[in-house]
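Appendix C: a fully annotated inverse folding record. The material below is reproduced so that readers can follow the format used throughout the book. The structure is listed first as tokens, followed by the designed sequence.
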């Protein structure tokens, strides 16, 4: 058992080495210490198997026009985590969605610091928190999928099933935020009996705009259920592209996720089409439309990168590690999310701090009143549905890929042996 005296002696030795390294008169000892440090780094590097070319791995895990930098198979969890700091063809994919988590968190916290804002745990912010959950899960699941997918073929399939599931959950998180902050009636005084004001004296935005009854029914009754249904369809379709339809998988995945965008953005399209009676000279009731346009621009850019496989298509092998299309796809998707966040927080500010932007100046402030069931409850039910879909496809993937794992592992071990000798 180590005594206090022994610990003091060891600490003095470490301090003596540090002193010697700072003294130019003892270069030999410093060089020895540096060699020792390099030896440790080399040993750590030996923990990771050599990277493979596209001809050395099963065709199942190869990416179009990416010729080298593959890690498959047989990585442990520790090896996967360490590979985040090693140049592979997945390193950039990991960092381009992991680092944005912190950027998003920085901007997300802004509304809670506004003067006269309600507390962060107020029901008014429930939709904003569900939106945060959707984005956070998307970015973390995407980055972890690219980092951990080299453990086995089955784990690879499960990782990307989870990735597709979190994308779908994110679209519903966006829909909840749109429902309570961008909905045509968001922040508008209630005009029913017992409401805040008389609709004959102070017409609300929703009653003054030429709103068709069917649109009112859709927004109030079918908007969130439609978003959830489309999200489930998207998970089913995208998971299927990993087991069939593989020839056109990138096109299918891109087009499939166009559906939740169109459904979720219905309140935005409505507000873009109709002018606000309370903003003289305005052509729409959506003052944060600029953020939405940029949101759409980055989504289109991400779709172009995902389908075209540019720039690696133009020069196969040159962009294997850095700069290939999937990294640009990640960057564009995050920029679209960031613009969406600015759009949502702009609407939150208008409702919370500047109600005269969305309601008549004489009207009292009216905040939306979401409940835990209508926000967290919806997300929880959706996540449970998505988890059951992922579990089913994972079970099918295990039956397909696990019998192949032993033979493929032997082949890759043989390839590594040849490379080392």
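Designed amino acids, in order:
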């Amino acid at each position: 058992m180590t005594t206090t005296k022994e610990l003091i002696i060891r600490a003095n030795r470490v301090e003596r080495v540090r002193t010697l390294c700072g003294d130019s008169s003892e270069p030999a000892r410093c060089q020895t210490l540096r060699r020792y440090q390099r030896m440790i780094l080399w040993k750590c590097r030996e923990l990771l198997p050599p990277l493979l070319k596209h001809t050395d791995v099963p065709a199942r895990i190869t990416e179009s026009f990416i010729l080298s930098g593959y890690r498959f198979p047989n990585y442990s969890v520790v090896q996967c985590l360490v590979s985040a700091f090693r140049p592979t063809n997945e390193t950039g994919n990991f960092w381009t969605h992991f680092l944005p988590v912190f950027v998003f968190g920085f901007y997300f916290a802004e509304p809670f610091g506004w003067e006269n804002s309600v507390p962060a745990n107020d029901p008014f912010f429930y939709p904003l928190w569900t939106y945060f959950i959707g984005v956070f899960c998307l970015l973390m699941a995407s980055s972890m999928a690219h980092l951990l997918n080299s453990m086995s073929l089955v784990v690879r399939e499960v990782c990307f099933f989870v990735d597709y599931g979190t994308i779908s959950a994110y679209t519903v998180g966006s829909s909840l935020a749109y429902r309570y902050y961008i909905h045509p009636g968001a922040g508008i005084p209630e005009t029913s009996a017992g409401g805040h004001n008389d609709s004959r004296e102070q017409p609300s935005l929703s009653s003054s705009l030429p709103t068709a009854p069917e649109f009112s029914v859709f927004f109030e009754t079918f908007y969130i259920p439609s978003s959830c249904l489309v999200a489930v369809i998207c998970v089913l379709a995208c998971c299927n592209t990993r087991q069939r339809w593989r020839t056109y998988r990138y096109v299918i995945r891109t087009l499939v996720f166009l559906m939740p965008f169109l459904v979720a953005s219905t309140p935005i399209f409505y507000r873009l089409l109709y002018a606000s009676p309370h903003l003289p000279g305005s052509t729409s009731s959506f003052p944060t439309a600029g953020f939405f346009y940029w949101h759409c621009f980055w989504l289109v850019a991400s779709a172009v990168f995902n389908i075209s496989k540019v720039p690696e298509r133009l020069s196969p092998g040159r962009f294997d590690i850095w700069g290939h299309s999937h990294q640009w796809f990640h960057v564009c998707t995050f920029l679209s999310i960031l613009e969406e966040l600015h759009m949502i927080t702009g609407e939150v500010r208008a409702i919370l701090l500047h109600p005269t932007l969305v309601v008549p100046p004489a009207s009292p402030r009216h905040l939306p009143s979401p409940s835990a069931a209508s926000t967290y409850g919806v997300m929880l039910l959706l996540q449970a549905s998505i988890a059951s879909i992922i579990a089913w496809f994972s079970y099918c993937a295990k039956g397909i890929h696990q019998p192949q794992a032993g033979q493929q592992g032997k082949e890759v071990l043989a390839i590594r042996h040849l490379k080392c000798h």
